[in-house]
Write a structure and sequence with these properties.
CATH architecture of the largest domain: 2-Layer Sandwich
CATH superfamily of the largest domain: Reverse transcriptase/Diguanylate cyclase domain
CATH topology of the largest domain: Alpha-Beta Plaits
Shape: flat
Number of helices: 23
Helix content: 55-70%
Number of strands: 10
CATH class of the largest domain: Alpha Beta
Structural class: alpha/beta
Number of domains: 4
Length: 530
Amino acid sequence: MLKVIIADDEQRICKLIQALADWEALGMEVVGMAENGFEALSLIKKTNPDILITDIRMPGCDGLELIQQAKLLCSHLEVVIISGYTHFEYAQNAIRHGVGDYLLKPIRRDELMETLSKMRDNILKSIDKKETVQAIYQDNQKKLLRLKRSLLKDLLNDEKISLTREMLKEAYYFEGKGECYQTFVLKIDCDVRKIDGEALEVILEKAERVLGNELEKCCEEMLLYFKDYTVYGLLNYSAGKTNDIRKKLRYCLHQMEEKKRLYGMIEYSMAIGGEVQEAEGIKHSLKNAKDAVKERVLEGTGRLLVRVPKGSGILKQRELDRYAKRIENAIEALDITDAADACRELEQNVMQIPEVCGRELFEVVAIAGNLFAARVGIQDVEEIQKEFAARYCKQCSKARQLFQELETFQSGLLAKVREARQNESARPIRLAKQYVLSHFAEPITLEEVCEYVGFSVSYFSVLFKKETGEGFAKYLTRIRIDEAKNLLQETDLPVGEIGKKVGYSDRKHFTSTFRKTVGLNPAEYRKLYG
């Protein structure tokens, strides 16, 4: 795309010029607009444009000065002068400074388009044609590929979308010259905590190369779309090639299986959704492929999955109800072990159901995770549920892994709640300790501290003992005596004075308490450690 800057001290003129031209048809884009010469020069330095459209008279730096400076910055720049001045000397002067054309206000659309077309031709002639054509071609190909891939994206996001061969061709540029369509899903299972970002990109690029090299040989058209750890594919081919396509897909899967160890612990599975001849059938084929690939958790990875079992109807049974009741006590008591037992019991019961299928296992575990998260009652529960189902469950390649993920999910949530509750109960204790440290020299009472933290005396006493391992009176005494020991070691203050500084107005009481706590009276302690 050629870059254009518009400069005019009247903003409405800039907007008018931008609105008049069909920039996309010209292969151009407006990268900036300026209201004076200085702004225009700044934009030119920043964007390196191909075309400048400027008024001949502007504040600060007028059009002619702007052209001179702009040409120094971009020697290839094509310039169009627009002005309300009809005197020919302005045009002559402008042309001497390298202006390619001259337009008068009011600006007409046909004249503007004609002038810009001429500018475009001049620019293309001055650039190496092969390089330009190749760059434009590559850019268009990328845009075309994005548009084609949006077909699979739309199908995944909207199952109600209606497709015809004409719609495929006109809306998505998918020609569909062959009589048959086939969808497939390539699933990459791995630990998302270890393989993500650049590592995933490398794996997807390898998969794209393998699939492209093999399938393009026997297809009229092939389309791939990547989402998370999955490759979705749509093939179009001539009738009679069904077996060849299936063999090619198996071969691609085999090639990726052979080299999977290079990327760490990953598993590949592929499923096909069935051949259809009508465009409307593509939706059903893709749904079947998505369902079939879930059977890997029972049938195993590294194989081409075709069958979509009817299933056992597990969601109509009472296993999830039993699980929901079982986790109530675990959540109430924050018992991770009890929650794990509920998870294992669910697994055992579900796996014993006749004709249970992989699709149902994914559904059961996702629903169980949602139930658990909802009943725990933490913040951002919807995001947590979504991440569990979409990020962790979908990456399981075995039934056992699915239930292990559920168990891990449960443990993590209970640990979060336990930590939150501990922090909640610890807060009043921290406040009480801070209060004691600031007021231990005063005659503190338990009632006074309880009023400060907002708890009753009985509840606070139990909570304090549970959190600290000692009663409040014992804690207060320890703080006071510890400070008294410091003063006895570091100062020459009389014992009675030290007693007052740590909250004991009566010397005898202080001495008695000190002896009981330390095993020495204050004078003996000072003699030994002072």
